[in-house]
Amino acid sequence: GQSLEQPSEVTAVEGAIVQINCTYQTSGFYGLSWYQQHDGGAPTFLSYNALDGLEETGRFSSFLSRSDSYGYLLLQELQMKDSASYFCAVRGHFNKFYFGSGTKLNVKP
Amino acid sequence: EAQVTQNPRYLITVTGKKLTVTCSQNMNHEYMSWYRQDPGLGLRQIYYSMNVEVTDKGDVPEGYKVSRKEKRNFPLILESPSPNQTSLYFCASSSGGGKNEQYFGPGTRLTVT
Hints:
The complex is a heterodimer of chains A (109) and B (113).
Chain A: E1 3-5, E2 9-13, E3 18-25, E4 32-37, E5 44-49, E6 53-57, E7 60-65, E8 70-75, E9 84-91, E10 97-99, E11 103-108
Parallel strand pairs in A: 2-11
Antiparallel strand pairs in A: 1-3, 3-8, 4-5, 4-9, 6-7, 7-8, 9-10, 9-11
Chain B: E1 4-7, E2 10-13, E3 19-25, E4 31-38, E5 42-51, E6 54-57, E7 65-66, E8 76-78, E9 87-94, E10 103-104, E11 108-112
Parallel strand pairs in B: 2-11
Antiparallel strand pairs in B: 1-3, 3-8, 4-5, 4-9, 5-6, 7-8, 9-10, 9-11
């Protein structure tokens, strides 16, 4: 079956750095994406990795290692508004998408 | 403004009463998809469509139908809703290009009693 594993909850303080890991096992792999979802809101796209390495977008970076079936999202200079759930997602064969169960990030002052 | 719209946003219905949740996008995206979100389970893909008249099952298609007669619209049909279909539903669209970026609608919270 398909599985994406990520921690259920992470807590960090404002200004800190936090890393959210994702390991996956899917039928086919055509890229790892990350989405942010605030309570009551819709998921919004953050980043995407198709190849190994680090992608940086402002305070957010995402890393992929295809040989390890592993990726992470790195959030720097945490702000209170970063408190949200973060989902990793894989596009597999036949354009199917698989999402992790989400990591709830709590940012404390 | 580029967006994905869904209607209704909230719906309470009874078991067995057919319903349709509409989804529309104004970005000329070829790829559209329906997801359900349940606590602790993340988002699970129900159905997706690569283009007009091309649809396929996602991970959890049982009890749902879809159609794609026009590029912009992708309705989700529950022919005979049951309580286990109580969930938060999201429609999403994507150009299908390199970044796999999906744009999500605001969600439809469905309760089946």
